[in-house]
Design goal:
177 residues, 2 domains, six-stranded antiparallel β-barrel, 6 strands
Length: 177
């Protein structure tokens, strides 16, 4: 048991060495304060002053990139939110954009159902959205001759929520095109 402890204690006590010129210069000044002989103390302070000057003129090391809690678990935030309705629901572009949209509203040109009973919405801008497999919402057919206006918004964890104007509830959807 003692051998096991003798092996583990140095392992846990070992810490990574970080070069910090400012801290090194301060520790030299602290060492100089303990020197009893005044001439030796002055020489020591002169050496420490040279270290302090070099520490002040050295370029600061870049700080480590701050990581989000999501990054720790293998998730990441979307690189950039979409700017136009045509980009909404597609994978994010490589370069970040400042003008992001979080929802779109369009009329439905065509409403259909899959063989499994999931609703499919073809919007007037050409996008095709389908009800998600896990969503159990029942979507009523639109009133004949009346336009169906839908709003699609960002949902939780990268999902999308579709709401139909004049109706309650939301439908989880995924973009097909």
């Amino acid at each position: 048991m003692r051998l096991f402890a003798a092996i583990l204690v140095p392992f846990f006590m070992a810490t990574p060495a970080h070069a910090d010129p400012a801290r090194d210069a301060l520790s030299e000044v602290a060492k100089c304060a303990d020197v009893a002989d005044s001439t030796e103390r002055l020489k020591c302070f002169d050496r420490a002053a040279a270290l302090a000057k070099s520490a002040l003129t050295s370029t600061p090391q870049p700080a480590a990139e701050k990581r989000s809690l999501l990054d720790w678990f293998g998730f990441s935030k979307p690189a950039t939110p979409p700017k136009t309705p045509e980009e909404y629901g597609k994978p994010a572009p490589a370069q970040p954009d400042a003008e992001a949209i979080t929802s779109i509203t369009f009329n439905v040109l065509e409403f259909a159902r899959t063989s499994r009973g999931l609703s499919v919405f073809i919007l007037e801008n050409g996008q095709i959205w389908r009800q998600s497999e896990g969503d159990t919402s029942v979507v009523r057919d639109p009133t004949p001759g009346a336009p169906m206006k839908v709003t699609i918004e960002n949902g939780f964890l990268g999902s999308y929520n579709l709401t139909i104007e004049g109706r309650r509830g939301l439908i989880k959807v995924t973009r097909l095109k």
